[in-house]
Amino acid sequence: MKKSIPVYDIQNFSAYKNDGILVSRFGYYSQQHQHLHSAHRHSFYHLVFFTKGTGKQQIDFRTFDVKPNLIYFMIPGQVHSWNFESEPDGYLINFSASYFSSLLLKQEYLDKFSFFSGKPEEQVLVLDTSTSEKLVTIFEEILREGNTETPINDDLVKVLLLRLLIEVARATDLQNKEDINPYNHTILRNFQQLIEKNYTQLRLPKQYAELLYITPNHLNALCNDFLGNSAGKLIRDRIILEAKRLLINLDLRVVEIAEKLNFEDQSYFVKFFKKYEGTTPDRFRKQYITTPYGTE
Q1: Model confidence pLDDT, tens digit, residues 161-174
Q2: Which of 45, 145, 190, 213 is the most exposed place for a label (fewest CB within 10 A)?
Q3: How do residues 270-292 score in pLDDT, each as one tens digit?
Q4: Of the candidates 265, 49, 271, which has an alpha carbon nearest to the alpha carbon of residue 139?
């Protein structure tokens, strides 16, 4: 049994026109990379659209069904695994975090899509037949572009990929409320980005509110109104998620994980984890190892 969860870079896969992107039919990709069926992490963006197949998959310890017309999206750093019951097929695209940098002036452009939020419940979507047919056409065009002998200039592929993302967002009504309330959207986006950068150091909503130049009550109200959770819960959820990601690395002792997450001592970390997760870190680790698809 592997003791640590592997992390794969875009360079670990064969290039498609450009080192920053891989496009493939999913059936072929799945057969060629059997090791990816077990839990692993990516350092790149990743999306899969299934046209056939059944089974289960996990994204950050949340379990989802695999079925035709389902598409899922992942951001760098998330933990993922598959467990297929019947042979899958469809399309897959991996692309680096810098892939669109030469095309888009707004580096945070992808943040406008809720399916790149890093929240599993927003990343797995079942599409209607009409949208699925549109996506198949786009995927096939991207694959054809990869087979051309033209010089390595894949701006057309970038445009097609952006069109694909927009078509999914339109069909599922998942584009955020930036156009409706850009001020609130900007505050919430900045808050989420601050959590990502500081969750091991800053634990209190008032610390983030100070960085955002708003009151803690204002921050909490925005989080409850637009995200359905308090500011404190969003911070705690990020700490718990990272704890889970570290716990499935068997090379790390619980005391080392507590240190990485900046807890005063192991005892405090264990109490924190049990309070919000309902089980101890050791029990979570054992449960995940024995029944990786039994946890939600």
Answers
A1: 999 999 999 998 64
A2: 213
A3: 999 999 999 999 999 988 877 66
A4: 49
Structural domain of 266: 182-290
Residues 119 and 219 in one domain: no
- Domain match, 89 and 29 both: yes
Average pLDDT, the chain: 87
Q: Which of 53-57, 61-65, 97-101 has the lowest mean pLDDT?
A: 97-101
More confident residue, 69 or 10: 69
Domain holding 152: CATH number?
A: 2.60.120.280
Task: Find the CATH number of the domain harbouring 257.
Answer: 1.10.10.60
Structurally, how many domains does the chain consist of? 2
- For the stretch 203-234, pLDDT in tens is 999 999 999 999 999 999 999 988 889 999 99
In a domain? residue 82: yes
Among 172, 204, 234, the domain-final residue is 172
For residue 177, is it within any domain?
Answer: no
For the stretch 46-57, pLDDT in tens is 999 999 999 999
